[in-house]
EF-hand domain-containing protein
Amino acid sequence: MSPISTDDLHRIFKNLDKNNNGLVCIHELYHLLDKIGIHTTLEEIEKLVGKTSLDYIDFYFFYDAMVKEKIAEQQSDDDHNLMDDLFKAFKVFDINGDGYISCEELQSVLLRLGLLDKSSGQDCREMIHVYDKNSDGVLDFEEFKNMMSVPISTSDSEI
Ligand SMILES: [Ca+2]
Ligand SMILES: [Ca+2]
């Protein structure tokens, strides 16, 4: 959503203010927000505004705050989902739930997912070693995150 100019906002306000009394009621605001993809409720607007109609200044501050808040919300939602997914994946690997992924855990999950062929003789110790920054032989969440940001079989591909 691109930032909106004061001129635009003034035009929007004029459009909403059908009877030209310099006030816009929250019902009209509600429909406007809905149209531009900000889904909220009348109650929420009323709570935020503290009244049922807004003059231009109210409208300006409300619109500004509302749009900024929604954009921030959407961004943190995205971040949140990504971390959530990673954390879920981590839990899958961390079979005994001690907060670390051991070589045995990694191996058994990869085998189960069909990502590892037992006959290939691939050693999970090596895989862990690549991402095991503090060299304790297991992967913590931070190290796991690094591992997941790179596809598992990248050893011979160019970057
Ligand atoms: Ca574990
Ligand atoms: Ca480690």
About this structure: The first helix runs from residue 6 to 16. The chain has two domains: 6-78, 94-148. The two ends are 33 Å apart (CA to CA).
